[in-house]
Predict the structure.
Amino acid sequence: MEITPALLVASCMVVALIIYALMGGADFGGGMWHLLGTGPRAKEQQKAISRALAPIWEANHVWLILVIVLLFTGFPNAFAVMMTALHIPVTLILIGIVLRGSAFVFRKYDRSEAPRRRWGVLFSLSCFFTPFMEGVTVGALATGDIRFVDGQVTTGFFAGWLSPFALTCGVFAVVLFAFLAATYLTVDPESEPELRDDFRRRALAAGLCLVPVAIAAFALSRNGAPEVFAGLTRWWAPFLLGATAVFGAAALFLLWTRRFALARMAAIGQVTLILGGWSLAQFPKLVTPDVTFANSAAPAITLRLLLIALALGGLFLFPSLFFLYRLFKGRDAH
Amino acid sequence: MDDFLFARSQMGMSLGFHIIFAAIGIGLPVLMAIAEAAWIRTGNPVYLDLAKRWARGASILFAVGAVSGTVLSFELGLLWPGFMAKAGAIIGMPFSLEGFAFFMEAIFLGVYFHGWDRLSPWWHWTSGVMVALGGVLSGVFVVTANAWMNAPAGFKIVDGKITDIDPVAAMLNPASAHEVIHMTLAAFVATGFAVAAVHAFFLLRDRQSEFHRRALGMALAVGCGCAPFQVWSGDYSARAVASLQPAKLAAMEGLYHSMKGAPLMIGGVPNDKTRTNAYAIQIPRALSLLVARDPGAWVAGLEEFPRADWPNVKLVHWSFDFMVACGFYLLACSIAAAWLWWRKRGLPDARWFLRSIVLAGPLGFLAIEAGWMVTELGRQPWIIYGVMRTKEAVTPMPGIAVPFISFTVLYLFLSVIVVVLLRRQFLEAPDSK
């Protein structure tokens, strides 16, 4: 396969999407556990979650912006198709994003008890709702139900995202992010030892729930996302699925045996493989079956400049992110 | 109203909401950084308290700004897919750079808001400066994208197809310089006066409060320092618009008939049918003088352009006049402040002055809203000036009234909460009871 600027930009987009899931996704997961805080330490759990999220959630959210600007600069036609066919779920995502961010800061700065509780509930509900709609939207791209013929979206505004496969992807995203968040919280410097145990149990529960949902999504993809399913029958697919399963099992085992730092690594590996594998299976389609990287790409000059911008931006971005995370998540951060 | 008008309304409403938070995101970090630097240099704890309280307010405003900005970047495609399909490759560049500027802002925001006890004072201050820099750069990049819609450059159209794309030339289009300068200064002026107004309000109750006196001094320094430059950049912008978008300039000035020695018309009721601007105050030859530096110069009126290419003259003219009026009021405040300061060798705190500053508080932001009305309504009926009509770009999605109403209700709700929380924040400040 030839390495083209379009391929490189597309790869950067997938990487940004994976990082968004790992970082921003976990922030949503934290919001879910905020609502599900139970037991004698419910208050402490909520405090730990809120403190863990506060310094980083805005930076984590920017990965989504990066995915979108790469999409509309690098693949403007694909962006136009997605935003037309998926107008409704994307609008719902946006409402969720607005409510999540606002409710989180409102909760932090509202001093009185009752409104704080209400903001907390709104924050958590939007943390369930937003990733569900994100999963549904990404799932819809794989269904093959969205058609783009002669420069027009011909399948209306309900195609794809209401299919069982897409809805299952929504559930999958919710459970996956809940799992990630609980796993991270076992090692977060904001978590006290007893809290780590609470989050360990939650991570194990979410990780176990993930198994049937993943199997359901895979089974539904046979008819619900035929091109991705076909992609998963290529020669490398068994290795990929096997590696994903190994990482998933390892994460659960390591959580069980309380080796939390390693468990976090395994969970990160698992999510990376899931999203990376999906991207490979769907390659080269952006919206199945009609829109590919090649047929929606911007001219080469735009893509080249975009790659230069990404390289220069990365030189600044990664050290800054490292600084942020070392400051708040490093070993001696607390 | 049809879907097209709802789509335009939704875009306008989203922009109008976000721009307030975006402007504060540019202006407020600078104030925070000044206060913190003053604390580090003098060791006076009042300055630290000030920086911390401004930062608390800022963290609410920044979060709402971040999420409402996200909405806008998606709305480009949700509402105007035809535009993005054509323009994405040409003008995506500044948006991508804006993505990195936004990263810079968000990362150092986290460091700044939550790192008070984790960093040495100067490192903490540096992260505040990074927030300010990120805010300014985000603004600059996004405004260049808007400038391109007004003065498209960096591509050719051959047989209806776009070719020869040059994203760098698109970014450095002829409208970029004046739009960027005018908007960046606007953010400093508006934030400076809005913050000054809050502290002036509390000083009217207790003029001895050291906290509010120092705060007022810093906010006035930023607002009043930038206001004269803003008036200059307004003149520079108007002359650029006269050469790039003469139809927009004619609408701004309510000028229907081309003429030599054109008068400046202030206010009035522009009437497209009779092509007159009734009841306007006319200053003879002033428009020609302003536009061409020659009182006898010829200025194009709307009659030069096909009726279908006119923007909404009433709205554009009134918005323009309102913006200019706000600008001159703020300039007058700045001159008064400078004069009082010089005479007294200290912070001006005369009651009439404090009252006029309280009145000035919202005017900077109202001027920003009016200014964007001029830019955006004045560009109509084009989404890419002279290249693509807004109607051609709109989504085929029916029922846009639903998202329009949803976002309007949502934003109204957020506005109320933000105001309530900020008000409480101010009341908790020392000497505010």
